[in-house]
Amino acid sequence: MILTMASKKYSDQEIIKGILNTEPPIYQFLDAMFYQKVINHVCRNSGSKEDGEELYQDVILEIYLCIEQGKYDLDKPRTFEQHFWMMVKRRWIDRLRSRGKTVHTSQLNETTRLIANNSEAEETAADIYNKMVAFLGKCLEKLTEEEQSYVKLFYYSRKSLQAIADHFGTTYDYARLKMHRIRKKLRKMVSDDPELGTLFY
C-alpha cells in the first residue's frame, strides 16, 4: 500500500525502514498523517487531547520496538495503516478499561469485536506500562538529568506534555520536541542493546 500526503508518497516498506532507521522525513510524515487523527479519535471516545498525544507517542515507540525486534510481519494481509489503527484502538480500549470506564461507542465496539476475533495474544495497558517502566529504568542512567526528569514526569508520573511544559517553564511545542528527541535516544539504546527490547515482548 502507498500512503500519500500532498506530494509525498511512501510504501509500507519505506515507512517500516524509515521508522527503524529513525529517518526524520518518515516521522514527520507519520505526524502529519496520524497525530491529529489519533487525538480526534481519543477525544471522541472519552479522552482528552493530552491522552491522545500520549497514546500517539507510545504507539509510535511500540511500533519501532516491534520492527526492531523483528516482530513486524510485512507479509500479513493488513497494511501499515491498518496495523497502526488496530494498535491505537486496542491500546485506547485498554486504557479506558484500566480507568474503569465502559466502552460504548459503535466504533470502539467494532474494534473490540475485531480484537476478540484476532488470534494474536493481547496485552493489557497495565502490562505495556509495566514493561515500559522496566525498559526506562534500564536506560534512565544513560540520559542527562533534564532528560531523566522529562521521562519520569511523562512515563512515571503520567503528566501531560502541557503539564511538563508548565513544570519547566517552557512551551508545549518545546516539550513535545524534547520528548521526541528523548524517544529517539531510547530507540538508539534498544538498537545498541537488544536485550532491552525483549522487555516489551
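(the above was protein one; protein two follows)
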Amino acid sequence: MTATPLPQLDQMKDILDLKDIHAWDVRWVWALGASLLLILLLVIARSLWKNRKKKPAAPAIPLTPLQAALKKLDDLVNSRLVESGQVRRFYFGLSDLFREFIERELEIPACEATLEELRPKLKSSAWLNPDQTREATGLLELADMAKFARYVPPREEIVGSVKACRSWITQVAEQRQRALAESLKQKEAGA
C-alpha cells in the first residue's frame, strides 16, 4: 500500500467550511398564532350571539275552555276532512274536542271514559239539564258510530253535528258562567 500525500487545503473540495447559523423566520409562527386567535374569537362571539338573552315574549293568556273548544272546532272544520272523504277522522277530532271541553269546563273526566261510563256522570252533573245531557250523548253516539262502526252520515247530518257541538258548548259555558257569577254575588251579599 502506498501512501498518498494529503492534498493542500485549498485543493480539498469534499470538506466544506461550517455554515453560519441560520435564524428561523418566525413570521409564520406569528401569523399562525394570530389566525388561531381570530378563529377562537369568532367562535366565542358566535356562541355569545346565539345565547344572548332574547326579549321575553308577552305572556300568553290561556284560553278559556270555551275559546279553546271553539278554536279547535273552527280548525277542524277548516281542515276539510269531510270534503276529502275522511269522515271517520273528522269525528275523531270532533269527539276529542267535545270531550276535552267537558273535562275542562265541567270537570268531568271524559277523555278516557267510554260513552257508557260518561253517560251517568253527565246525568249527575249539576251544570247540565236533561236536554243538554241528551244532546251531548246523542252527539257522542253519532261520533262513536262514525269512528267505530264506520258509519258515514250524510253531509247535512255532519253540518248538524258541527252546529250542535258549537251550540252546546257555547250554551253550557255561558250557563256555567252565569251560575258562577250569581254564586259569587250571593257570597258577597252574605258576607
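Reviewer note on protein two: The mean pLDDT is 88.
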